[in-house]
Amino acid sequence: MQTQMLEVDPLSDNRKLYIRAAEALANGALVGMPTETVYGLGADALNAEAVAKVFEVKKRPAFDPLIIHIHHGKELGKYTVIPDALKDTVHTLASKFWPGPFTMVLPKADCIPDIVSSGLSTVAVRVSAHPTMRGVAKALGRPIAAPSANLFGHISPTSASAVEKELGGNIEMILDAGACSEGIESTIVRPMLDEKGKPAIEILREGPVTREQFRNLVKVIRKKTQVEKPGTETPATAPGQLTSHYAPRKPMILLEEGVEFHPKEGVRYGLLSYEGDSELATEGDWAEMVALSPGNGRLAEAAVRLFAVMRQMDENEAIDVIVAEPVPEAGLGRAIMDRLRRASADRCRE
Ligand code: TXA
Ligand code: MG
Question: Which of 102, 106, 266, 317 is the most core-located residue (most Cβ within 10 A)?
Fold first, then answer.
């Protein structure tokens, strides 16, 4: 299959392009498309066969449900059934964080095919702030199911060329709108009632909307298990949050507290540094050293660059092993550390 690469024009409303992409989706095609977090692999969410292709092309296990993207919060009621006791909380969160890098898991309406939610009674819903994702969803008139446009478990794509490298030849179309402005996947929460019957949320995945931003809005319940072990039978609340994820093909070591690094003779190491000015970065013997935040942008800059830099180091043939420095674990740093931990977790490779 030839993958068409179509450019989004920053100086026009792109109406014709969005209609063209929506027509492709309506015909059951898969389209790689941008959001402000990462690029998604889009399919018509109400077409079970098209959604099945998403799982096939990504090599994604069937137990890992997809996020649906609606073009406006007013569509939420069509695709979810929100319990009365949670309506105010859902409304507050939607008003505050939509459109944006924010996803809510809610009881699903019957029109959402079971394959989208992997058989769960809930569905994850997001209104992206990216005009392309919203424009195409509006032109389609239905939600777009879109996981990140990478092979399962691999590094998420933050540019159209990264999507092409991951899935080129296996999907019909990619819409190129340049680099993503957030760089890491949306924050996922599940609105629920706490043990006293009061509205609360559980954070299923850390992301650009930070824990601190929920303060004074809604109670956050701590999850008992943060990550699910591969091969676990019982479905966890965020089934896709496997220990090993977002991973480069090369081994990666995260220098967390307690991790000792003993370089081996003959192995070439690359350093994924936070700001590039630590003792390790300046004095170590690295085949390549890349800083996540070389400017003064710190955590926001690090998040935007994270997956692109990991991809660059993965592709650099002068490196055998990637060594990563930790970043401060507060605010956006929590989401970055989550991705670094999963990328460096032990895994079985084919
Ligand atoms: O930023 C993002 O969220 C990107 C863009 C494309 O929207 N999408 C994304 O999708 O990261 P994906 O499929 O790579 O990750 C979605 C996560 C998975 O870990 C999945 O298990 C979880 O959302 N999820 C989806 N539906 C769920 C549900 N009903 N209950 C719990 N977790 C769910
Ligand atoms: Mg993903």
Answer: 102
| Mean predicted confidence (pLDDT) in 297-325 | 96
Distance 185 CA to ligand 2 centre (A): 7
What residue spans of the chain are helical by DSSP H? 15-26, 48-58, 76-79, 87-97, 131-140, 160-167, 279-283, 298-315, 332-344
pLDDT per position as a tens digit, 260-278 = 899 999 999 999 999 999 9
Whole-angstrom Cα distance, residue 271 to residue 291? 8
The full length of the chain comes to 350
Of 246, 265, 266, the closest CA to residue 324 belongs to 246
* Residue 239 Cβ < 6 Å to ligand 1: yes
Give 193-226 as a DSSP string.
Answer: E-TTS-EEEEEEE--SS-GGGGTTTSEEEPPS-S
- Give the number of the ligand closest to the Cα of residue 37: 1
pLDDT for the residue 244: 80
> 309, 292 in Cβ contact below 8 A?
yes
Using CA atoms, how far apart are residues 314 and 345, in angstroms rounded to an integer? 16
Q: How far away, in angstroms, is 290 Cα from ligand 1 center? A: 29
Q: Which atom of ligand 1 is nearest to the CA of 66?
A: 25
Q: With beta carbons less than 8 A apart as the criterion, state whether 40 and 146 touch.
A: yes
Q: How far apart are the first and last CA of the chain?
A: 25
How far is 34 from 40, CA to CA, in rounded Å? 6
Substitution site in 104, 185, 206 for ligand 1 pocket (most atoms within 8 Å of beta carbon)? 185
pTM: 0.92
